[in-house]
Amino acid sequence: MHISAKADYAMRALLELAREPSRPLTCEAIASSQEIPFRFLKSVVGELRRAGLVRSQRGCEGGYWLGRAAEEITLLDVTRAVDGELITLRGEPLAGLDYPGPATGLPDVWREVEAGAAAVLGGVTLTSLLAGGATGVTGATGATGTAGAARTEALARRGAA
Q: What is the 3-class SS of the chain, one letter each residue?
């Protein structure tokens, strides 16, 4: 799975806005705080505005605010707002994917990967990230406690081999 720079920047910008929801922030302030290229951030914020995730006000007292409450904005919302489909295969959605012969089951695996990623991203809100980092992520995947640690360790060993 590929997480685009656009999705990463969008999430970081929204977290900046969620951190101080009582006052607007300019793109310049967000870009500086998060070390994001200003011009790229400006286009990303435009997409977030069109998706209703941020709202803006012009003028000397203007800037950007969250378009919804931080507890209502998930990472899945953000990813879909800036990237569209969560996972594609050669640029096409997985919904109509069908293979013949021995590869018949493969599209179901790809759709399961997409559903798992959507479950994780849909279970993490801006508020949960501000409150304690990514602690809610392991709970969303079911990989908690010793079993989750063992699975992570096994995957790490496999990757090192």
A: CCCCHHHHHHHHHHHHHHHCCCCCECHHHHHHHHCCCHHHHHHHHHHHHHCCCEEEECCCCCEEEECCCHHHCEHHHHHHHHHCCCCEECCEECCCCCCCHHHCCHHHHHHHHHHHHHHHHHCCEHHHHHHHCCHHHHHHHCCCHHHHHHHHHHHHHHHHC
Q: Which residue has the tokens 């709202």?
A: 55
- Say what the alpha-carbon torsion angle 36, 37, 39, 42 is, to the nearest 10 degrees: 0
Contact between residue 49 and residue 24 where contact means Cβ atoms under 8 Å apart: no
Structure tokens at 14: 């929204």
The identity of residue 89, as a single letter, is: L
Whether the pLDDT of residue 15 is over 50: the answer is: yes
- pTM of the predicted structure, to 2 decimals: 0.78
Residues 6+ apart with CB under 8 A from 25: 16, 17, 63, 64, 65
